[in-house]
Amino acid sequence: MSRASLLKIIVSYRKPMVGLLLSTLAIVSSHAQTYNIDPTHTNVRFAIDHFNTSTNTGGFYNITGQLEYDPMTKMGDISLVIPLNSLNSGNEAFDIALKSADFFDIEKFPLAEFNSTKWHFSTDKKGSDITKVEGMLTLHGKTNPITLTATKFNCYFSPILKKSVCGGDFTTIIDRRKWGISKYTLLGMTEKVQLDIQIEAAKQ
């Protein structure tokens, strides 16, 4: 057999193998889905002790971003853009104070952002398989790592949107001083702030 004939046989053998490999990769990658954050079902709420007397609460709304989620390969990624002007505590005077340069300084820093760096999954099938999400929170011009604890996470087919929707609840406690927001800490107002994050995102 000539060398040319042998090469033709090898090439003809490799073509279907390459095609099979590409098809397999396409099937695997097709499991990774992209979801757009639904601003009407996504918010970041905060709670902070008020001089050991009561708890002040409020929230940020109209949040945008994207979610990548693949339960088969245990992969997740999320990015959130939080408009600080959407702050609502139910108290207009308190909102104005929080938006001022003493706290969030929204004229200088109108947005906060969260970008995940690592998702943690559990093998316990009794609850959500997502346990924690690590990421970077950018706020007040500073970026620091935080870890969100997942209290629940699930996906379902929305009869209203006619598409898959994923979402869940997450919580963490941060030290506001790390983001340069230390007003009144010397007077006894705690630096610890609890964040409760609710997200919901619809498949693209």
From TrEMBL:
Protein's UniProt keywords contain Signal: yes
Signal sequence extent: 1-32
Domain named Lipid/polyisoprenoid-binding YceI-like: residues: 34-202
Sorted UniProt keywords: Signal
InterPro entries per UniProt: Lipid/polyisoprenoid-bd_YceI, TTHA0802/YceI-like_sf
Gene3D superfamilies: Lipid/polyisoprenoid-binding, YceI-like (2.40.128.110)
The keyword Hydrolase belongs to this UniProt entry's keyword annotation: no
Superkingdom per UniProt: Bacteria
Protein name (record): YceI family protein
